[in-house]
Amino acid sequence: MRYSVAMTGATEAAVLDRLIREDGQEDVLIATYVLSTGLERTTALIRSVILPRDGERLVHGNASFTSAYVLRAASEARAAGEGLVLLHSHPGAEGWQLLSRMDWDTESEYERVARSTTKMPLLGMTLGTHDTAWSARFWFDRTEPTWAESVRSVAPTFTVTWNDELRAVPRVTASQERTVSSWGERAQGLISRLRVLVVGGGSVGLDVAQRLAATGLLTVGVMDFDAVETRNLDRLIGATRLDAALQRSKVDVAARLMRSAATASSFEVRRHENSITDPEGVRIALDYDVIFSCVDGPWPRAVLNGIAYADLIPVIDGGIALDTFEDGRMRNGIWRAHTLVPGRPCMACIGQLVAGDVALDKLGLLDDAEYIKVANREAPARQNVATLSASVSGALLTQFVSLTAHPGRRGVPAPLRYILSTHRLEHSTVVSGPYCPYENATAAGDRRTLIAERQDDWRSIVAARASKKHPLRLRVLARLESWAQRLTNRMVG
């Protein structure tokens, strides 16, 4: 199990305001957290800050908690059903901070208080004030802390402090020289270590996944339970007729293409033949730092919309809709792109997700022509072409760069919409609704509202594909293709 910590940008700003002192002395602070539990990673989400009262902390060059402050905070955390976080600053320090002997003794001493009161492990965090870098560790007992892999601040400008011991800075390869020249080695070291999940391996998702691999990311996952078909070949750039004939899974095709495009010296492809609308898919998604939403159904998009806020994982979403005249000529096309993080409105607030459609999608009615006719609804737009899907993938990747590299120090923009017929790019002025159920559940973690449900449909599709036996000629072609790929890799490598 890996461990990490995440907080909203607003929470981090409140903490920095207390821990960075004008007089240059250390300071201390207490907060609370809840857990977000993935398949391989558990994340502590900072929920609230408990400010000290007069006399509850001592500042004397170094700083220390009083027992009264810790006991009061532990009681408040227990009442909220949350864990306890002890934070302190190291003035002038930078990077991931280790523990001094005094820090170790303090946290190990209060570990028992936190665990006995809240029934959750103590979380210790240190701030290096020179570059506002964090470090974090979980105390499951008094003997030894378990160090987190990263601490993330989730806002329109997304920042990560990495524990270099657990997630080492990758070597810059010769293939990455122009990438690094665009934003520098430090940004490359931060971005390349992000674990990024692409949900949906269609025309947009397949392009996004390959370009992430080419950028030098160490780990990219693709989630899709569907297979390549002949009708996909005008959009899935890189997929072949053999892929369609063999009905290869989209994640297998994506994995092959990503390996060919990857520039990192050690690249990990993670294949997930799963559905994001199933709890199993959600647990997988919680292991990632950033998610690309390349799906078009209301239900999967609602699940991802919830994860973005409840679990503090930025979700980059977008899509395209094409409109034609009755004679088949194109009338218009609209692509959109937006990033879901605290500080930006969710899909429901900007009108890209209708709550009532989620229930219809669960029942499969949005794909039922008879229901659509009786209900007098418009059928979902399914048109797409390779030349325009590239616009969407480009828009999503631009959001990713804004989120992680912060050109102009501005982070991600307001939601964008491009109207093809009038050549106009629009910046949305929509703000979050005051009663938005998604944004009001920010940092809820494992207490999130359950939108995903266990299903067997996608499991049956994956199982049927695995058990299908193809004609001999196709199996021979597949073996020859595999042999040619291995030979090429050996000769080039």
TrEMBL record:
GO terms for molecular function: ubiquitin-like modifier activating enzyme activity. Residues 179-349 form the THIF-type NAD/FAD binding fold domain. Transmembrane segments: none annotated. It comes from the Bacteria. InterPro entries: ThiF_NAD_FAD-bd, Ubiquitin-activating_enz. Gene3D superfamilies: NAD(P)-binding Rossmann-like Domain (3.40.50.720). It holds the Pfam family ThiF. Signal peptide: none annotated. This is THIF-type NAD/FAD binding fold domain-containing protein.
